[in-house]
Amino acid sequence: MVAVVLKAQQEPQYSQNTYTQLLVNPGYAGSDGRICAYALQRSQWTGFDGNPTITAFNVDGSFKRFGLGVSLENDAVGFETNFKLNLSIAYKIPLAKGNLGVGIKWGIVNSALSGAEWNTPEEPANNDPAIPIAEANSLDFLDFGFGLFYKSEDLYLGISSTHLLESELEFDSNDEGTTTSKVALKRHYYLTAGYNMPFANPLLEFKPSIFVQSDGTKSQLAFTGLVEYNKKIWGGVSLRTDKAIIGILGLELFKWVKVSYSYDFVVSDLMEYYNGTHEIMMGFCLDIKKDKTPEKYKSIRFL
């Protein structure tokens, strides 16, 4: 008999990282100077049973020198479902031609395993101490993150870390609760940067960006290049070090509502067994600054 320990990706992966900054970096909260809300739905490796399905929602806004944000994330893969709710707060410091957001976030993580769906040689499944009971849940209230996010008119830079406490989730493996399975929330690190480069044609703009994520053992890099026309339509390609090529296309439907779609094409032997990865985003931003009402003076001295 040989026993081994298997380790795999723990945090969800997104292709449109521009709209998921708040999920990994609390310093991003309020950086846009408006109230913004984004919702994403990602179906990864479609065609595989139990393929990862991720739903994310985040909203943030700027209030004087502070930024506030709320993010929700539901990640379902196989028999496991993870739900995260986080509150982010950032203090904005004027720096050069932009603002540096220093942020922290805290929230809860709920993880559940559905043991009732496991196919086992014997019934009931909880005869095997390695398999959790039908509905095993764990709730952790102490999940913290920290981040720095700098943004100017044409440049943004961010560095952050999540799951600072590296808390452990425990699942009961039998009805008596005498056997447990443990999952540690591994600390993750993120680095992001992007820049807006105008073309000779003022209606066109090139937006390159990078996104790096690591757990200290394994790292992944994504480089994205988007071309935007008249700030209404954008498209481009993203290259990721897991041999993925991603196509991205988006447009602004109304004055402030945006929709975008991405498709992941992985250049590996897996491409023969699944139908790709789809991700769709919908979001909007609202200006919270009110234009000043023109003042009228009767005296010619004030003209």
Description:
It is a single chain. The protein is 1% helix and 56% strand. By secondary structure, it is mainly beta. The chain has a single domain, classed as Porin. The strands form two sheets. It has a 14-stranded antiparallel barrel with strand order 1-2-3-4-5-6-7-10-12-13-14-15-16-17. The protein is globular and about 70 Å long. The protein starts with 20 loop residues before the first helix and ends in a 16-residue tail after the last strand.
Write the layout of secondary structure elements.
Blueprint (H helix, E strand, L loop, with lengths): L20 H4 L9 E10 L9 E11 L2 E12 L2 E16 L2 E16 L22 E16 L3 E8 L5 E5 L7 E5 L3 E8 L1 E2 L5 E11 L4 E11 L3 E8 L3 E9 L4 E10 L10 E11 L16
Antiparallel strand pairs: 1-2, 1-17, 2-3, 3-4, 4-5, 5-6, 6-7, 7-10, 8-9, 10-12, 11-12, 12-13, 13-14, 14-15, 15-16, 16-17
What is the overall pLDDT average?
85
Characterize the biggest β-sheet: 14 strands, antiparallel, barrel
What's the shape? globular
The CATH superfamily turns out to be monomeric porin ompg
- Ends: how far apart? 91 Å
Helix residue percentage = under 10%
Q: Which fold does the CATH topology refer to?
A: Porin
Structural class estimated from helices and strands: mainly beta
What is the CATH domain class? Mainly Beta
**Which regions are unreliable across 5 or more consecutive residues at pLDDT < 50?**
none
Beta-strand proportion: over 45%
How many DSSP helices? Answer: 1
CATH architecture: Beta Barrel
- Spell the H/E element sequence: HEEEEEEEEEEEEEEEEE
* Rg (C-alpha, Å): 23 Å
Q: How are the strands of the biggest sheet laid out side by side?
A: 1-2-3-4-5-6-7-10-12-13-14-15-16-17
Number of β-strand runs: 17
Query: What number of structural domains do the residues give?
Result: 1
